[in-house]
Structures are given as structure tokens and as C-alpha cells.
Amino acid sequence: MISELLAPINQFLKASTPDEWINEARKPENLSVILRDHMLCELKAAQSAIFLIRKYAVDKESAQQLAEWVKPYEALAYKKTGTLESLRGKSNASKQITPRADCAYSQDLIDKMVLLIKEELHHFYQVLELMEKKGVSYELIDAGRYAKGLIKHVTSYEPDALIDKLIIGAFIEARSCERFAKLAPHLDKDIEKFYISLLRSEARHYQDYLTLAEQIAGKDISERIAYFASIEADLITSADTDFKFHSGTPA
């Protein structure tokens, strides 16, 4: 079942995670970095999806509602304000989100991204729960080079900029899925079980991003996908001195 789920992802990615990264990630002393960075990655994934909806798909009131939705998670991540208990049940959006009438793809973007946001925020909560169980204290860590290394190649004109962002989203989700699967067998059983449980949603997120990119483009985007595949593979396989969940080969 897992091999079937991973087959299209492994085909989509141009390079596999280097064994050197797995060997570094499985070290007990790096568990804190892996879990803290993973938690922040879940928040950033939700923030990125919210940004896309606010910029391209909804009216001003809905944009504000979306910003409010993620605030408790941002407060905990960036200001250490809040607790596991204060986040309980906060991952569900409580109000109707209104699509912009002048955007042909707004409803599709909202439908796919809202589900993604709910799941990413729930995963944030689950990682925090696991950290408390493992006695890993939360301290903010700087972002690695991975996402920035992809985003800097986004074109400056629309709708191609949106298409690039969606392609990047697909690569980030696909890589996360691939890494969870490769790393899981090397970790404690409870973390292994959790990481395996994430594979299906991560795989769907990758597919949703890719489907939206193809739909909005209305043309063949395989060349652009190949372009970002090469950039992403280089970020994953080249030497990297800053160990993180999406870092390259440990230098």
C-alpha cells in the first residue's frame, strides 16, 4: 500500500533523499531539530495556502477571517504564547469563505487549500503533542534554505507566478511525503506510526497542488515542472551545513 502511494511521488521527484541525510536525522540528538522544524513546516504550509487564497480567491472579509484562523498557531510558534490545550479544536474554519466572483478558479482553489490548511494545522498540533510526550522543549529555529531556494525562482508576472507557486507547493509536499516514509523506520515506534499516518494526506496535498497548477495554466506545464524538479533536487542533494527537515546532504 505504501509503495503504491509513493510510486507517483518518487517519479515526480528528480532525486531521492540522500542516505547521509537519513543517517543524520535518525541520531537521537537531532530529534529536537527534526520535530521543531517539522512543526514549523506544518505552520508554513498552512500560511502558504492561506496566502494563496487571500491573494487570488476571496473577498476582503474572508481574507481577514483566514488571517485570524492561523493566529493562535503563529502566536505559539513565534511568541511562545499558548499551549497544547489552547489549540485544541482550533484547526477547523468556523465561518463561510466567500469566493471572488471575478476569478474562474477561486472555488477550486478554496476547496483544496482549506482542506489542506485544516490538515496542516492539525498536524502542527499533533507534532506539538508528540514533542510534549518526548520531553522536547519548543524553541524557535531559523528556516533552512529549501523553501527560499525554490521561491526565488518564481516568475514575476501572473498567472505564471501563481502556477509557479502551486508547482513549488507540490514539490514541498511530495518531498515531505518521501522523507516521512524513508525516515519513519529509523525512529521510535510512536514517531514511526505518526509519520506513516501522514503519508496519505501529504500525497494528496502534492496532487492537489499539481492539479490546480495544470487547471489554472490551461496548457502543458511539464517544462516548468521539470525546471523546478532540477532546482529542488539540487537543494536536496547538494552539501548543506544547516541540518533541517528539508536540508540537503549534511556537509
UniProtKB/TrEMBL annotation:
Alphabetized SUPFAM superfamilies for the sequence: Ferritin-like
Domain of life per record: Bacteria
Swiss-Prot/TrEMBL GO biological process terms: tRNA modification
Gene Ontology molecular function terms on file: tRNA 2-(methylsulfanyl)-N(6)-isopentenyladenosine(37) hydroxylase activity
Gene3D superfamilies named in the record: 1.20.1260.10
Residues making up the signal peptide according to the UniProt record: none
Name of this protein: tRNA isopentenyl-2-thiomethyl-A-37 hydroxylase MiaE
Organism field: Photobacterium sanguinicancri
Gene: miaE
